[in-house]
Amino acid sequence: MKMQGKSVIIYDVYAPTNVTTMLRPRRQDGQSVIQEGFEVSPSVPFSEYTDVYGNPCQRFVLPVGQVTISTQVQAQVNITKPIPTPPPSYMLVGDLPDEVMMYILPSRYCESDLPEIGKLAMEIAGNFVPGYDQVEEIRKWIHNNVKYQYGVTDSTTTALNLARNRIGVCRDFTHLALALCRSLSIPARMTVGYLDKLQEMDLHAWFEVYIGGEWYAFDAVQEHTEGYRIEIAHGRDAADVAMVTQFGNATLKSLHVEVQLLEPEPAQ
After folding, report:
1. For strand 31-41 and strand 250-261, is the pairing parallel, antiparallel, or unpaired?
2. Where is the Transglutaminase-like domain (predicted)?
3. Spatial separation of the C-alpha atoms in residues 178 and 75, rounded to whole Å
4. What pLDDT digit, counting tens, does each position of 213-235 carry?
5. pTM for the whole thing?
């Protein structure tokens, strides 16, 4: 399926502000980038590098005034990978590849080592077969027990906060899912990008788990994990995959996102 994503971010800048951004798509299996654009207005020079997770990153300085960052991508993507039958099984920690080990550890927003998180994970998934069944129960529990609402969480909200307050947005849903999976020694990472099936269009966050030797996408915001996705970045949590990280005095004024499938979706 050919899919297009666009985002326009506008900042009011009060002093020259250094930023790093993750706004260009990853090039990887299952996602073939056809064309993309990245523009800053007024125009400024920028440099690029690849972080430790393989995400393309940009560095530049926002000038004083109103600054617009516009990006777009057109890519050939596959529908969210279906779970095979029988579903993939749990992998013992000793069998995990070295590069996956970081995703079973606690991180800034995912306190998977706390007893309260471990207790909740066991209450939700302790009686299910280790692996896919546990992850799907965690995903469904979050979808059914956490209310989706803007404006009630912020950049300090963690998985533990959401476990207690049970209200937030896709970033928060994902953090709680990551923490619960990791508490069961199931590797899990945060992924951000474009999704075609959203009621309120925005840059979206979901989670991926490593089971049966592969990464599989799960989305606690959706009733069922489905749709087409363009991945921009992945990492341990939101600290690793922030769309914009600023070091200075600038205020986000607006964010506008558009997603479009450029070919008819196959009949079900």
Report:
1. unpaired
2. 162-222
3. 27
4. 999 999 999 999 999 999 999 99
5. 0.94
